[in-house]
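Sanity check. The docking grid for iron/sulfur cluster depends on where the pocket ends up, so I'm generating a full predicted complex first rather than guessing from homology. Inputs follow.
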Amino acid sequence: MALPLDPELTRPHDRPLDPTTGEPLDCTRCGACCRAGPGSQLVTAGDLRRWRENGRDDLARNTAPGHFGEVAFPTTPEGACVYLQIDEIQDRTLCSIYEDRADVCRAFAAGSWQCLELRRERRSDGRGRSPTR
Ligand code: SF4
Ligand code: SF4
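Predicted complex below; grid placement will be based on this.
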């Protein structure tokens, strides 16, 4: 599962808060759902068709085995979607294919229980208070 790193969620009053930490759910400083591990960011037949129609055959060709026998985005050795850009210095996480991201990325909601669970897992992994680390 993966969620949209929504650049529109930039103003503090737009962002819901993480009920556990009280931090704003700022996707551009999180990316936990895009680092959920190999096979978790699923690609649908509709994504493949849309990419081919939009001249993004490169995305359609660059897939990996996903959970449940499905197709997924490839991941780095650390389990992050290969299209996740992590800027350690600026403490930012951005989707490098935001306009072409998959349907699951678009549907994933900041503040959903899956979002909060992935954030909790990243904190408990010892990667710091902020899920970006
Ligand atoms: S886990 Fe939640 S807050 Fe973090 S990037 Fe995904 S949707 Fe945004
Ligand atoms: S395509 Fe973008 S939003 Fe979707 S999992 Fe990869 S980095 Fe995250």
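Relevant for the grid: The beta strands are 42-43, 64-65, 71-72, 84-87, 92-95.
Also worth noting: The pocket of iron/sulfur cluster (ligand 2) is lined by residues 2, 4-5, 34, 41, 73, 81, 83-84, 95, 97, 101-102, 105 (CB under 6 Å).
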